C-alpha cells in the first residue's frame, strides 16, 4: 500500500483529519466514510481570558473582558424580573441563576481575575441569603472607555505584572484617567490580581 494512502487511512481510522484550519472527523458509524466538520479555534483566537503573552497591546482586551464580567455580575446578571428582600434595613436583590450560588459567581469572576481577587470581591460585595447570592439593589459604574485605553508596563516577571492604563472618557465628558492594574499568571494565563470593584 502507498505510504500516503496508509497515513490517510490511519488518520481516518482514528477519526481526525486536519483540513484548512479546521478539522474533519470520521463518523463513528461502522463502515461509514462520512466526514463531519468539527469546530477548532485558530491560534490567537482563544479570547482575552487565554492570554499567556502579556504585552501593552494584549492587556487591553483582557481588561475590557474583565470589565464586562464585572458589569454583568455587578448588575446581578440577568435579573429580570428583579427579586428583592430587605436585610438590615437595606434592599437587596438576588443574582440571576447563572450567578446564583457562591461557586457559580466565583467561577464566573475567575474567568478574568485571580482566585484571591474574586474571593475578596464576592466576600465584600455580595451576601449569601437563603442559599442564594444577592447584592445591594443599586447600580454603579463609570463611563471610562477601556477599549480605547493605552497601556504602559511598569514591571513584569514570569508570574506577575503591573501596568498603568490611560483610559479616556467619551468626548465632552472629560479627558482621561490613569488606572493601575496588577496581574498574576494563573495556570499559564494572565489574570487580574485586584478586586473588580477596586479596578473599575
Automatic annotation (TrEMBL):
Coiled coil: none annotated. InterPro entries: Endopep_inhib, TA_system-associated_sf. Residues 1-25 form the signal peptide. This is IseA DL-endopeptidase inhibitor. Keywords: Signal. It comes from the Bacteria. It comes from Paenibacillus odorifer.
Amino acid at each position: 500500500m502507498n505510504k500516503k494512502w496508509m497515513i490517510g487511512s490511519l488518520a481516518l481510522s482514528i477519526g481526525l483529519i486536519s483540513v484548512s484550519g479546521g478539522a474533519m472527523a470520521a463518523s463513528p458509524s461502522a463502515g461509514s466514510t462520512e466526514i463531519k466538520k468539527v469546530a477548532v479555534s485558530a491560534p490567537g483566537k482563544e479570547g482575552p481570558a487565554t492570554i499567556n503573552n502579556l504585552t501593552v497591546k494584549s492587556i487591553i482586551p483582557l481588561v475590557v473582558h474583565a470589565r464586562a464580567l464585572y458589569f454583568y455580575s455587578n448588575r446581578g446578571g440577568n435579573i429580570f424580573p428583579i427579586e428583592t428582600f430587605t436585610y438590615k434595613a437595606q434592599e437587596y436583590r438576588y443574582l440571576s441563576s447563572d450567578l446564583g450560588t457562591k461557586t457559580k459567581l466565583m467561577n464566573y469572576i475567575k474567568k478574568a481575575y485571580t482566585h484571591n481577587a474574586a474571593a475578596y470581591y464576592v466576600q465584600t460585595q455580595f451576601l449569601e441569603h437563603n442559599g442564594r447570592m444577592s447584592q445591594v439593589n443599586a447600580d454603579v459604574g463609570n463611563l471610562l472607555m477601556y477599549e480605547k485605553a493605552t497601556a504602559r508596563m511598569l514591571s513584569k516577571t514570569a508570574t506577575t505584572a503591573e501596568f498603568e492604563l490611560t483610559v479616556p472618557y467619551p468626548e465632552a465628558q472629560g479627558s482621561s484617567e490613569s488606572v493601575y492594574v496588577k496581574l498574576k499568571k494563573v495556570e499559564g494565563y494572565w489574570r487580574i490580581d485586584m478586586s473588580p470593584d477596586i479596578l473599575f
